[in-house]
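Justification of computing resources. Each target in the renewal requires a structure prediction run like the one illustrated here; the chain below, 295 residues long, is used simply to show the kind of job we budget for.
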Amino acid sequence: MIFDRALIRVRRRRAAALGPAAFLLDRVADDLADRLAAVLRRFELAVDLGTPGEAVRAALARLGSVGTVIAADAALERGVTRAHKLVVADEEALPFRDGALDLVVSALALQFVNDLPGVLVQIRRALKPDGLFLAALIGGATLTELRHAFAAAESEVEGGISPRVAPFADLRELGALLQRAEFALPVTDTDIVTVRYGSAFALMHDLRRMGATNTLIDRRRAPLKRATLMRMAQIYAQRFADADGRVRATFEIVWLSGWAPHPRQQRPLKPGSAKARLADALGVRELPTGEKVER
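Resulting structure tokens:
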């Protein structure tokens, strides 16, 4: 157990009440729509799993290839309109029967589940054969600057460090989880977004409005010392500022996609079944194993 799931829901409701900082979600929603537009088929029944806000559902509504969209959300945020069906459901306990859905999408939500392998298995089972899963998660390079600045400040001021930024999975780990969940044709890729702020405090304000402040179960429960906070901001500005004085914050967005297995899907050929040699196509001589190229 890594994340306090009840606290995550509280923080998301608070972010919605404050007026969310949605620039990352808007970017992901547009990218998700572009990726789906390249798939030449129609998805009659889709689920948007755990995504905060309306951006993804609005993007799906603009696509002619997606029919009914169900929002599956345990946070019951403001902004979920009557234009979409709503199922109150936690991402870790899906209420959908096996083989019920044509499409499952999720944006910037699944990085906060405690049992991601189990969630992926549930999603694959809920999809119809040849159904598609497409999600964007926060990756391991996210907020490296804030992580390092807090660690240095706490070590200096308090003589030790505590977990301040969540440990997110990297691209290779997430690709392996897709294969473990038995998705067909799994694909992962990453998008690095660098956002510039006037100070570390402006970044932390945005994180609060994203509902993305510290929800680790092992977080320090005592209030953050003012001296530690001020030293963190100084270290951040010293190490991660540009020439104009604005500081950088890295967000890594990892994309996952996979299909529920179906007999008609493409499969790799068996080793040794090729009918043409790559060396012939390239017009070069094929060397036996161990033979060195002469110069």
